Each structure stands twice: as C-alpha cells, then as structure tokens.
Amino acid sequence: HTPLAPGVKEMLAKVNGIRDFRWDRPMITSLCFSRADVRKRMVKVITDYSCQHPEVDFLHVWVDDGGGNKCECAACGKRTPSDWYVMMLHELDRALTAAGSKMRIVFIGYSDLLWAPKEGAAPLDPKRFSFVYANGGGSYTAPRKPVAETTPRVPPYEGNTTRRDRGPEEFLGFLRGWQRFFSGDSMLFEYYLGGGRQTFGQYSLARVIHGDTRMLGDLKLDGLISCQASRVFFPTGLPMY
Fold first, then answer.
1. Which of 52, 83, 127, 226: disulfide with 79, CB 3.0–4.6 Å?
2. CA–CA separation, 88 vs 109, rounded Å?
C-alpha cells in the first residue's frame, strides 16, 4: 500500500502495541477515536460528502468493518467503542446542522459495536438518525424463533478478546441494549442472497426470509436490508418477492 502521510500512522488504532493497518487492510483498520483530531477529520469528510450529495436520503456512517481490531491505547480504553462512536455521531449531527444538511444518518450495531453505549450516554436525535442492527443470521437454514422477553444476558465487553455464543438470547440481548439507548427508526441487516445462496435452495430460503420478516414486529424493528446482489431472480425470484 501507499506509504502513509506524516502523522497519519499515529491516528490508527493501537493493537498489540502497534499502530498499523490491521492485517494489511485499510478497510478493517480501526482508528484512535479518543483523539479529537481523528473524529474531527472523520466528521469533515462525512459533512463534505453530505453537502456535495444532497440527493442522498440516508447515508450509512459505519466505522471499520471487522472485530478484534479496536484501539487499545490508554485513552481509548476509558470508553467502549460504541461510546466513542456515539460521541463522533453527536459531533457529526452538530456539523450537519451547521451546514444546513437534513440528510439522515444510519448508524450500526455490528461486531464490537453490538455492545450499546454505557448507561448515561447522550441519546441520538431520532429525526437525524436511524439504526441498523447487523448481527448476522449465519446459515439461514431456518427462520428465527421467538425468545422469551426476560433480560437476555450478553457477555461483558472485554476489548479485542471478547467471545460471543451467537445464540438467539444473545441476539435479542444486544438488540434490546441498543433499543434502550435509541428508540427511533431501525432495521435489520442480513445476507440472505449473498455467498452463493442466490442460486440453490431458493424455496427453502424464501420460507426463512418470510419467517424472519414476520418476526420484525416482535423484535421492534421497522424493516430489513439484505446485503446481496440486487438482480437475483434465477431460477425463481421467490426470495426477492
């Protein structure tokens, strides 16, 4: 990859004592979000894009696409990744308002961001933000089943060493944690027709999608997005329908 400009490497997440591209992949490299200058640069890029593209109704603002890669410096360790993320989203909201942009921002619960901000975090404005819950459904061999509305436990967040069981109770626990923080428009994010599933087993997959869609009301979600190719109508198109 191209050598980093002076001062940029210090803005990357510190993992195992090193600040560098994670697995040599910029997309899966986190940043040192405790640094105000890092958040400021992120906010500026997003605000500039929003002002240049007023035709966009909903802009997804995610951070690094991966887990086990969050900054371990002393400053970042004082808050969870979600707390730093929400802090930056508040700063973005103020910048967009100052710029006169009414664009809606979609924030995500995924990987290390499945843990909602700690109690007392300032809530996000539901007129500006929407929430997407991306806690993948795995093999999609069967629809989701209802889970008793007790208080589902989630594992404590332990930085880059945290392990999850990916069970239905944990799925609901993470979701309810974010819903206690944010009560606005929200949606589920799945991969129904990705990874080769667009050709084989379309009838059974259609039943899975149908069952999961019927669960959205119980999950208190307003809709879903499927990460996939858009033109997947062979041989039947039934899952898309």
1. 83
2. 15
